[in-house]
Amino acid sequence: MKKAIRAAISLYRSFRDKEPTRVKIVDYEPPEAVAIIGYVEEICYVTSHGKKVVHYSHPFGKGSRPLLCASEDGRQLLLLGGNFEFGEQGIVDKDARGRPIYDPQHGSDDLGFMRRRQAD
User: How many other β-carbons are positioned within 10 Å of the β-carbon of residue 85?
Assistant: First the structure.
């Protein structure tokens, strides 16, 4: 198995708290050019941890925001740049020195800037 696939599986396990049931390899062509649409202020998504469905909202700090870009044909959206990383704790912004910035309002879950939202 390729090193990149093993790393992706490891990231999945650490964040989702479960083993992947399958590996899906998606072929895609990186766009030759992109249109820069603007900065991403916040990202919201739904995922699961173990057997729980969880809604997350991550507001990016001003110095951590990635650019929202669209492929030249408008069929792909990409997040490029920014000063953050995604890992076991989800999305965590970084300061100018590359140190993680944790949200003091988040509480004991210690998931960085991610905030759980109530499931619908």
Answer: 15
Residue (of 110, 80, 75, 78) closest to 92 by Cα position: 110
The pTM of the full predicted model, rounded to 2 decimals, is 0.76
How far is C-alpha 17 from the geometric centre of its chain's CA atoms?
Answer: 16
Within a domain: residue 100?
yes
State the residue range of the domain holding 75.
28-117
Provide the domain count of the chain.
1
Whether 42 is in a domain gets the answer yes
Place of tokens 């202020």: 41
120 residues of the chain, pLDDT tens digit each: 689 989 999 999 999 989 998 888 888 889 999 999 999 999 999 998 888 898 999 999 989 999 999 999 999 999 999 999 999 888 999 998 999 987 644 433 333 334 444 444
